[in-house]
Every structure is written in C-alpha cells, then in structure tokens.
C-alpha cells in the first residue's frame, strides 16, 4: 500500500541508488505512495548526503521526506505514521485518521537540552558518552544548536573582569 525508500545519509552510493528503485516502482507499482527516508541521522557528523539535496530530490519526485535514527528512535514513528496517513487518504479513509502529536519523552528531553546548550558545550554535560553523542547529532540534524529557547538566544561569552573569574560562562542575550 505504501513504500519507504531508505538510504544511508553516510553513504552517497545508497542515495544514488534511489533512482533505480523509483524506476522499479514506476514499472511495477505505479501510483503507490512513497516516502524518502534518510537513515542513520545519529551519524550526522559523517554525512555524505546533504539534507537539502535529499529534500529537493524528494520534492522533485513527489515524495515526502524524513531523516530518521532508529538507534535514537527519532522520526521513525513519524515517517511510518505519515505513510499510513497518505495511504488512508489515497483510499478515501481519511475519517479513520486520528493524528497523534505527542512527542516521545526522549525527543522532548533532547529538544529541551539542545535548545539551551551550544553543541560545543555538550561534552561538558555530566552525561554518559553515548547520550552526549546522541545530543550532538540531534542538535546538528535539527539545526537547533541553542539558537532560541523561550524567545531568548544563548551564546558562549567569556566572563569579564577580575582575576576570580576563570574560563567561560553561558551568557543569555536578547
């Protein structure tokens, strides 16, 4: 009823192979809804396929686009949910559709931490290494990098003045 075309964001060859799969789909399953999925978002720092390029490709081929990380359970449910919605709409069953907009607890925690912590300070958080790695990838993947939280931006600024202040501190600005 629907097709997920999945490529690895850290492997250019896997993205380039999507054309072949689209030809197969057009030949054997024309009109079946499809979604383009960039997998392994938790490895965004090793990215070989830019998000904008994949998004443009999906748009050109009339597909919805998601980047996911099964390891972090990021956007997996959302991509399957969207494919389900498209399939139901295609078959005139939109009355069955009941969207669920609840974020997972992990997603909410990541958004909260990343929204107020610059990516270069994540290593200083008292968290396990695997969680720090996930937060860095989440930050880069979502372009959040502590840009805004509750209408205020946060940035790293050196402490001014006396000899008692050492290093850097997180400074809030409007």
Automatic annotation (TrEMBL):
Keywords assigned: GTP-binding, Lipoprotein, Magnesium, Metal-binding, Nucleotide-binding, Palmitate, Prenylation
Record-level GO BP terms: intracellular signal transduction; protein ubiquitination
The keyword Metal-binding belongs to this UniProt entry's keyword annotation: yes
SOCS box domain residues: 88-141
Gene3D superfamilies for the chain: P-loop containing nucleotide triphosphate hydrolases, SOCS box
Pathway where it operates: Protein modification; protein ubiquitination
E.C. number(s) listed in UniProt: 3.6.5.2
GO molecular function, one term: GTP binding
Enzymatic reactions: GTP + H2O = GDP + phosphate + H(+)
A Pfam entry, by short name: SOCS_box
CDD domains: SOCS_Rab40 (cd03742)
GO cellular component terms given for this protein: membrane
Cofactor(s) named in the record: Mg(2+)
Record SMART domains: RAB (SM00175), RAS (SM00173), RHO (SM00174), SOCS (SM00253), SOCS_box (SM00969)
Major localisation: membrane
Location(s), subcellular: Membrane
Top-rank taxon: Eukaryota
Membrane topology listed for this record: Lipid-anchor
Enzyme category, top tier: hydrolase
Record's keyword annotation contains Nucleotide-binding: yes
InterPro entries given in the database record: P-loop_NTPase, Small_GTPase, Small_GTPase_Rab, SOCS_box, SOCS_box-like_dom_sf
Annotated family: Belongs to the small GTPase superfamily. Rab family.
Protein name: small monomeric GTPase
